[in-house]
């Protein structure tokens, strides 16, 4: 799995991992032209023509953009099947697949599916997908307009016969919805959600999402959304009312894939979104996602919490480090451009930051679309990171001080024989060393959470703070033991 994504570090807390890139999700299968003449019914003595059955879809081998062959001209074509740092330094770079509207790879976690961050950086020329969506919308709008005109003309004709046409009131008051409804939550949250345009000095850039964090003008988003413009680029923030403001990066945390911006001239009356408690989220809870999928700002989608504590690793596709999270999984529709946007509870509180999506195959492209597998950074973790970035401008990562392998199917996080550059995998003065851990030990649990790999361990470690005491369960020589570890810290440059 993986995603954010849209950032990261080499060997994570002395662990390393690489993640594959994720591809784009295909559009719906083409439909027949409107108004086409249906085929004549077969004669009684004629042999019925059976539609051809396309071969079974294998997500590991079938290109995402490939549409199964249509059976017969008379039959509608079938729709395509869509498919931790244990210590430090961070893990090796991975190509991410983000939920941010840009080109580049995306976060990934485990075959055959690949996680793509909705919003990874892209070249300016990669706006084709967004353009395609806009064109499609215009075409659809033209058809809808024609149908609307025909309906209006029919009404006018009937009115001349004495019928009465009743039109809906244009009074905004009539559009108000109860606070507990999706429409009510969206209406309250949209003014505090922004679309972020990031343009780097080298021409790279992309579109992502963010939201108002406090009344001082801080905006919370993903690191991969703003990474391309963080040093010498340009950041523009657009509110739902169309007003634009320049912004600058206050701090970035690649490992967490979190970034904080500050509006250069913040308007009066900013309303921060309410932050919820992601630890109290339950599987099955309703979710609402807001973002700018493929550049379509102020898009609202709904779903549920599909799973919790989902290990996700992602990279920014630029040779940077990986990010790790113990993510909230949701089936709310999340696409490139949603990265950095809020995942809300049914009550309207932010419970996560949408960061990654999973795609089902590879077409050699870097975009991906929603197949109901989206991943969000729990807001409790993101809030801690944001507070640190606002305070110091630099992230702080909790570590156990042991280098672990990043193999996926090892039955746990295996402590390596050596650390980075031939150093000790478990320094004696590190938290793990003081707790008695040794190279070759296999960590199988972090507190009560089962650990099946190095990335899972790192994701769990990073949900805590330096100084927290945790219990590690590990195997050595076939024997299971536990160790109490006080997490250390490592300050990052970004």
From TrEMBL:
Segments of skewed composition (Pro residues): 21-44, 70-80
Biased composition (Low complexity): 1-20, 45-69, 111-120, 155-171
The keyword Transmembrane is assigned to this record: yes
SUPFAM superfamilies attached to this UniProt entry: PDZ domain-like, Trypsin-like serine proteases
Residue ranges of the region described as Disordered: 1-124, 155-179, 413-432
Transmembrane segments: 129-151
Keywords: Hydrolase, Membrane, Protease, Transmembrane, Transmembrane helix
Full protein name: Putative serine protease PepD
Originating species: Streptomyces brevispora
